[in-house]
Design goal:
Length: about 325
């Protein structure tokens, strides 16, 4: 167990967003998780939307979907706990078939992953014979298995253009597809899936923000509707937004994305002030210190993938990682 001094130094990492009165509620779980990680030879991969007590106090690797996929492929630990949503845990399992991959709450889904099935992809292929299918990682392994290649919001344009064809099917996020289409000559056939968090941002909201804060820099996730992206100063994956703040040091910024993202970036950049009209992802918020601890104590919930699905799904993910 870490001693009181070690826990105190962890508290310094989150002090600006966690009041002292709340820290004892987290400290016990944090100490237990750190000990369990050593005992189990486990690493915790945490997405940028995880709350700061997870992101800054127990995670070993943090990042966007692309970073988590890349790091999952590299880890030498015996066990991976995915502090994120189910498709991220499946991707980690695809890349580590011999390791134990745990998701602390199996209900941590995603509206994009729910928007399309493997049968839908087969139907699309019938409608567009010979057109390659580029699948956003925010999908089930079964949908990935029907795809030629995967992409994330961090590499979508690069992946689409890497195929060297005039037309691709890009699914399931309609807005990501339309935002990529605006930046490439490749024709894109889209599906009608949406992220329930990012579809709620509007261009009118951006206009109001600019009226209220004339110096504001607006960063949007490419899952936002195209008119929101067009009204913003920059659009990119969660890692790209973070990188923007780290390199450009805007005095005043808004991140049009999930709420915890601003907390995590703000903790690293106290010189920047954040306006926060964020939207919560209810799926990401199912992951807590308490269920991470439980996952490590009881080795639940283990992610398994039918081998017949895993092989083609892995090919699509590995093809993306090679781009
Ligand atoms: P990133 O890959 O940009 O982290 O996005 C993942 C996601 O689920 C955004 O809603
Ligand atoms: Fe899915 Fe949207 Fe939540 Fe990301 S923020 S996990 S895309 S529902």
């Amino acid at each position: 167990m870490p001693d009181t001094i070690a826990l105190e130094s962890l508290y310094e990492r989150v002090r600006p967003v966690i009041p002292p009165v709340e820290w004892p509620v987290f400290a016990d779980d944090i100490a237990a998780i750190l000990a369990l990680k050593r005992e189990r030879d486990a690493v915790i991969l945490a997405h940028n939307y995880q709350t700061p007590e997870i992101y800054r106090c127990v995670a070993d690797i943090t990042g966007d979907s692309l970073v988590l996929a890349r790091e999952a492929a590299k880890t030498s630990a015996r066990m991976i706990v995915l502090a994120g949503v189910h498709f991220m845990a499946e991707t980690a399992k695809l890349l580590n078939p011999d390791k134990t991959v745990l998701i602390p709450d199996v209900r941590a889904g995603c509206s994009l992953a729910e928007s399309i099935t493997a049968a839908d992809v087969r139907l699309l292929r019938e409608c567009y014979p010979g057109v390659p299918v580029v699948t956003y990682v925010n999908t089930s392994a079964a949908v990935k298995a029907e795809s030629d290649i995967c992409c994330t919001s961090g590499n979508a344009k690069r992946v689409v253009e890497s195929l060297g064809v005039p037309r691709v099917i890009m699914l399931p996020d309609e807005y990501l597809a339309r935002n990529v289409a605006a930046e490439t000559d490749v024709e894109i056939v889209a599906w009608r899936g949406h992220c329930e968090v990012h579809e709620r941002f509007t261009a009118a909201e951006v206009e109001t923000l600019r009226a209220q804060h004339p110096d504001i820099v607006v960063l949007a996730h490419p899952e936002c509707p195209p008119d929101v992206v067009a009204a913003s100063d920059f659009a990119g994956s969660t890692a790209a937004m973070s990188q923007y703040v780290a390199t450009k040091h805007p005095a005043h910024v808004v991140l049009l994305t999930e709420c915890s993202m601003s907390d995590n970036v703000a903790l690293e950049h106290p010189e920047t002030s954040f306006v926060r009209p964020c939207n919560l992802c209810p799926h990401m918020k199912r992951i807590t210190l308490c269920n991470i601890r439980q996952a490590l104590e009881t080795l639940t919930h283990e992610v398994t993938i039918d081998p017949a699905v895993a092989a083609p799904a892995r090919r699509a993910v590995e093809r993306m990682l090679a781009v």
